[in-house]
Description:
- By secondary structure, the protein is α+β, with helices and mostly antiparallel strands.
- Helices cover 46% and strands 19% of the residues.
- The strands form four sheets. A four-stranded mixed β-sheet has the order 4-5-7-6. The chain has a four-stranded mixed β-sheet with strand order 10-11-12-13.
- Mean pLDDT is 90; it is low at 261-265.
Amino acid sequence: MVFDPEVDPLCGVKIRTGGVFTLAQARHAGYSNAEMRRLVRGGVWVMLRRGVYVEQSVLAVVSLDPQRRHALRIAALLLVLNRDAVAGGTSAAQILGLQSLALPTLELVVLTSEPVHNKRRNGYVIRSAALPAGHRRMRHGVPITSPARTVVDLARLQPLTEAVVVADSALRQGCVSLDDLRRVLGDCHCWRGIGQAQRAVGLADPESESVLESVSRVAMHEQGLPAPRTQVLIGDGEAPFARVDFLWPDVRVIGEADGLGKYESRGRRTTRDIVRAEKRREERLADRGYEIVRWGWEDAQDAPRLAQRLRAAFSRGAERMRGRIPCC
């Protein structure tokens, strides 16, 4: 959002508040009551929350961007609360665009370092929490918890699978590193749920390319399967011909978490071309002694079933590998 002080008397206010304003602020900026009534009735100013407005042009710009739309709603709430607070938890995750197993929620979550009774009302929840300076960021004009703090907070309070999905998403997006997450874990070492968060960060993988891969890795972990190598290139010397989601090199078993082959670019190839390329890819992998196990959401959400399929493949791989040196 770009505000021009030469044509907009409210420019300074909007820059400070993430684009929203109250009628009192508009009046102080020089708008008369008659002008404000005309702008509201004409739909130029739109009410976001009781007493908080935004220009229709701004609303139109953010309407197709869920991250900025959520940030605008947070901005309106913070203006009403009139206290030192930041978006946290699921709200910070939505503003950051982190992936999740859960559907996006309309409820807003804000944190404040001031003492408050945790409460849920009028479409938002406010919680009291420590907010060190290093745990704060600005995104889309509003204050939020840093990406690392957001991941750790969610990991403390959510099931392990959901926590790993969020952590992997943040790592994949590049807004955090594993070191960032470990630093915040250290800052919050005595907080409720920190053990769960430590487990989630321990399982997080910056190589994970999808939510399905994240869910699959947690299922493997919980079933006691050996941890695979992830996103491995396989080929002859310096000319790899395949990238696989998961690899257990000691038994030459490959795991594909989407049931589809990996292609650098499909371009204008027909479905027949793609199927032929995948068949050739599988043949080349089989020629090198690899077995491919494919699965989708149904198997990933049935951890015992996925584990059974993989263990069977491991057994067959061990038989094949007797007397051979494993490699990839």
